[in-house]
Fold this protein.
Amino acid sequence: MSQEKVDKKKELKANRKDIVKKKKIQNVVRGAVVALVAVLAVLWMGISGYSKYEAYQEENPKTYSVNINPISDYEATLDEE
């Protein structure tokens, strides 16, 4: 091996702990950034979906109709007695 390669290997061996520590820190930071982006994406989809749901509910309200004639007729018969 040439002297350059020997010197380079010695330097890498001497700095191996620092290099490993730096890579671990980079991996943790990368994971945190990916997790943050994933959480923000889920929140954005949830808020967007909820706003669309609310807009749909305002455009199409639920209405119910109840026929209370039988109840009124029954009350009328009670009043007569």
